[in-house]
Sequence to fold (331 residues):
Amino acid sequence: MKLHFSARTAAALLTLAGLAGPAAAADPAAGYPARPITLLVGFPAGGPSDTAARILANRLEHELPGARVVVENRGGANGTLAAAALTKAPADGYTLFLVTKSHVNTKWLYRHLPFDPATDFQPVALLLTMPNVLVVGPSIDAPDYQAFAADARKHPDDYTVFSTGNGSDPHLAAAEFQEKTGLKFRHIPYKGGAQGMVDMLSGRVDLSFATLGTVMSYLGDSSSKVRALALGGAQRDPLLPGVPTFGEVGVAGFEPIAWYGVMAPVGTPRPILEKLNHAINHGMNQPEGAALLHKMGASPANVSIEAFTALYQKDIKTNGELIRHLGVTLD
Fold:
């Protein structure tokens, strides 16, 4: 039997066919990933960023069937070389960038970047968080935060505080702490946390607001010469349950937290971003993923793309205010 359609009916059927077929076939996440994913890291192999990236690569390969994730270290210029490489990559989900919180600082520390951290990166997932910890070495014999603060108030500028470099997160945490408490320290920047901890143990420097990952191995037993007096966050960290938060010791509104996250090029299709966000959140919160993060002093996060974007933009703003106040630039 031969069917006859009016011109209007035929047009409507063609429109519906066009909507159903191509829309389903064009879902960019349907076959993703179909080839290896490159995960850029802005620091050399062997450091905490590299460790986190390799944990992430392993978990993504478990979460995404057939996935292969290649970690590519592009160290140098405080992570900006890898950041620049991401902005030049296709927005197809096959190039990602593991960032630390210090990435937001580059907007204010460098005057001639080839990118804008505020607009040229698409947040994908918050990977992990770890608190900044006020740690003191053997040169300070205060048994707790209150005794430390009382002595520091009597001797302004006598104590030295080390950071992992001008404009680093421990530097900004120390600066914000001094603003909130009125205590005064002399800042000594190092090129990394390891040498700073060695000098703290020997008494060359007195204290730091280092990340838990930097100090974790020094806090393992009662014989350690390094002591944690307070830490960032709204609540105590499960890895250091005996250490109070800054809020508990009376430093209201001071909650320094470091984080690592994953970025993609701007324009990456939303379905791919959502697939990655779910895979990262689920994979890192499985017992194996969480245990690996705990070894580096971190805890897995589990937030939406929107929540990570809001945190990222907030930290760009608040850290920018601190850096401008300090007058720090790196070029």
The beta strands are 37-41, 69-73, 95-100, 122-136, 160-163, 186-189, 207-211, 227-231, 257-264, 299-300. The two ends are 79 Å apart (CA to CA).
